[in-house]
Design goal:
The chain has 296 residues and is of the alpha/beta class. It is 39% helix and 18% strand. The strands form two sheets. An eight-stranded mixed β-sheet has the order 2-3-6-4-7-8-9-10, with helices on both faces. A hairpin with a 5-residue loop joins strand 2 and strand 3.
C-alpha cells in the first residue's frame, strides 16, 4: 500500500470533521458575541459619536443673546476633566443644563442657548468627554457620567434642583431623560427627542433585536425615555419637527403618548433636525415661552 494512502487511513476523520464543524459554528457565534451592544461598545461608540474639538485660536465662543459665556472646567463622574460654557443672565432664577447631540461641540450650540436665555433663564452648556475642550473619549455610559458631573457642578454653585431645567437635544434627550430618572428638576425640555436608544438602534440594525436588555448597558444605565417619564416627573416639553429624518416625529409622538402628566408637545410643521425652520418657528418660540412662564 502506498505510504500516503496508509497515512490517510490512519487519520481519525471523525475527529477532524468534528473540529471543522466546531470551527464553522464558532465563527458566527463569535461574530454575534462581538456585535452584542455591551461587548462591541468601542465599535458602536465610533459609529454613534462624532465629536469636534474647538478650532485653533478660538479663545471665546459665540455670544448668545449678547451674553459672553464663562469658561467652566469641572469633573465627570468618570474622572475626565470637562469643559462647559456658562451663560449667566442677571436676575434669572433658573438655569438650563444643555446636553447636546452626538456631533459638534458646545461652541456650535450657541443657538440652543438663546432659547432659554430669551425666556429669563441662564444656561450651562457642557461638552461630553472628547468634545470641545473636554478630555477623554465619548461613550454611552460616559455621557451620562458627564451629565452627572455637570449637574453636581451646578449644585455645588448654589443652584437647587428646583432651579435646574434639563434641556436635551437629539441623543442628549436620552441623557436628560436619564438625569430626570435620577434627580429632581424644575422641568425637562427635549428637542428632537429619541424614544429610546434601543428603539433607534433597531430601526438601523434590526439584528440587534435578538440581544436581551442586559446585553445593552452596564447596570444602572438605561438611555430609555419610554420608561423615564411614565411615572411622576417634572413638567415635560417635547419639541419635534415633522420633517426630521434623523429622529422622526413618530418617536416624539410615542414618547408623548407614553409619558404621564404634566406634559406638552410642540410639533413644528416642516421642521427638520434642529434646522433653521425649526429654530425660527413661531410655534417653537411661543410654545417654549408659554411653557417657561408656567414655571415661574
Amino acid at each position: 500500500m502506498h505510504p500516503l494512502i496508509q497515512k490517510l487511513k490512519s487519520i481519525n476523520w471523525s475527529f477532524v470533521l468534528k473540529g471543522v464543524l466546531a470551527t464553522i459554528l464558532a465563527i458566527p457565534i463569535a461574530i454575534m458575541i462581538g456585535l452584542a451592544p455591551i461587548v462591541g461598545r468601542p465599535l458602536y461608540n465610533q459609529v454613534i459619536f462624532h465629536p469636534s474639538k474647538y478650532p485653533v485660536g478660538s479663545d471665546w465662543p459665540q455670544k448668545a443673546c449678547g451674553i459672553t459665556p464663562e469658561d467652566i472646567y469641572f469633573q465627570s463622574e468618570n474622572g475626565n476633566k470637562l469643559h462647559g460654557l456658562l451663560y449667566r443672565l442677571p436676575g434669572a432664577k433658573k438655569i438650563a443644563l444643555i446636553s447636546h447631540g452626538n456631533a459638534g461641540n458646545a461652541l456650535q450650540r450657541a443657538f440652543l442657548a438663546e432659547r432659554p436665555l430669551s425666556n429669563n433663564c441662564s444656561v450651562f452648556a457642557y461638552d461630553y468627554s472628547g468634545y470641545g475642550r473636554s478630555q477623554g473619549e465619548p461613550s454611552l455610559e460616559g455621557i451620562v457620567q458627564d451629565a452627572e458631573g455637570a449637574y453636581k457642578f451646578l449644585l455645588s454653585h448654589n443652584y437647587k434642583p428646583e432651579q435646574i431645567i434639563f434641556f436635551g437635544e437629539s441623543i442628549g434627550t436620552l441623557v436628560s431623560g436619564e438625569l430626570s430618572r435620577r434627580h429632581k428638576s424644575a422641568a425637562v425640555i427635549l428637542e428632537c427627542p429619541l424614544y429610546s436608544l434601543r428603539h433607534k438602534a433597531l430601526s438601523i440594525l434590526p439584528f440587534l433585536q435578538y440581544y436581551p436588555q442586559w446585553l445593552w448597558f452596564a447596570p444602572g444605565y438605561y438611555l430609555d425615555n419610554s420608561t423615564a417619564f411614565h411615572e411622576q416627573h417634572a413638567p415635560l416639553l417635547l419639541i419635534a419637527g415633522t420633517a426630521d429624518h434623523l429622529t422622526p416625529i413618530e418617536q416624539a409622538n410615542l414618547l408623548f403618548d407614553m409619558a404621564a402628566e404634566p406634559k406638552g408637545i410642540l410639533r413644528i410643521d416642516g421642521g427638520g433636525h434642529g434646522d433653521r425652520v425649526m429654530m425660527s418657528s413661531p410655534v417653537y418660540k411661543n410654545g417654549l415661552a408659554e411653557f417657561m412662564q408656567k414655571l415661574e
